[in-house]
Structures are given as structure tokens and as C-alpha cells.
Amino acid sequence: MKKIAVVGLGNILMGDDGIGVRVVEQLEREKCLSRSVTLIQGETAGITILPYIEDAEAVIFVDAVIFDGEYGEVKIFKDDEIQTDRGPPLSVHELGLKDVVSLIELYFHHKPDIALIGIKPKSIAEGLEISPEVEKSIPIAARTIMNEIEIFADMTGIVR
To answer: Over the Cα atoms of the chain, what is R_g?
Structure first.
């Protein structure tokens, strides 16, 4: 069976920044994914997540992302949109997702298909609470990830 990794990124101590982790927690509770899908709480791990995704045929990151749109809006970014050097960084972390993707391309024996499920944060401030606008996006982001898993499964020949 080929593998898909879903990686939740973010700092749960910084409000909406923890949304990626919360979405992966939701997927863990639903227990509806095939054995070929691995859920990873990447949190703020940066490059230390690389060994956990090295064998994946596809990687779906979920994180708080700065983009034009409404707070809590869910947007899918694919390969070139993640790699672009124009505009603001896609991730709110010091070592951005673009850096991690660049390292994947440099050090892995293959380049997995990559998607970023971005959720626009309202507040990146100390605290455990997710803003209501962003919290409402958790089930939407989880469904979006499920759809991306289906797309990647069809692309890579994964048996469901």
C-alpha cells in the first residue's frame, strides 16, 4: 500500500496558530481513514518531521496561513503555490513550510505530491483558545483533507 501523511502544524499555545493540530485531532477522533494514511501532530517541529514523512507518496499539511480572505477561510495550496518566493510566507512559523518542502525535494529519493490546507487565522496571540471564526473551520478543513486524500489516492493508485 502506498502512503499518505497528513501533518498538523501549529503552536496550540498561540491561539489560532494551533488550528492545524486541532484539525488533525478531529481526524483522529473520526477514525475513518484507511491504514495507508498516517496522521502526524507536527506542531512546530519544522525539519524534525522529515523522517516521519520520508516514505509518503503524498503529504498534506494543515496550518494557519496568511492569505487574502475571511478569518477561518479554508484554502488549498498545491506544489508551486507553496514554493513561490513572492508575497508573504505561507506559514506563520519561523522555519516556513516552503523551507520544509525545499528540504523534501533536496533530500528525499522521490518528491511526494504535496498540498497545504491553509486556514486563515484571526488571532495569533498567547492562549489556548481558537477564535470562533477559525474553530468553525475545523470540520470544513477535515472534509477538505478527506477530499485531497481521495484525489491523491487516485493519483498514486492507493487501494482504499
So the answer is: 14
- Measured CA to CA, the distance from residue 138 to residue 140 in angstroms comes to 5
> What is the mean predicted confidence (pLDDT) over 43-67?
85
At residue 73 the predicted structure's pLDDT band, cuts being 50, 70 and 90, is very high
| Alpha-helical regions (H) of 41-108 | 50-53, 79-83, 97-107
Global pTM? 0.84
| Residue 13 DSSP code | T
- Residues spanned by the domain of 114: 4-156
Among all chains, which residue has been given the C-alpha cell 474553530?
135
Number of compact structural domains in the chain: 1
For position 11, which CATH number holds? Answer: 3.40.50.1450
Q: Are 10 and 65 spatial neighbours (Cβ–Cβ below 8 Å)?
A: no
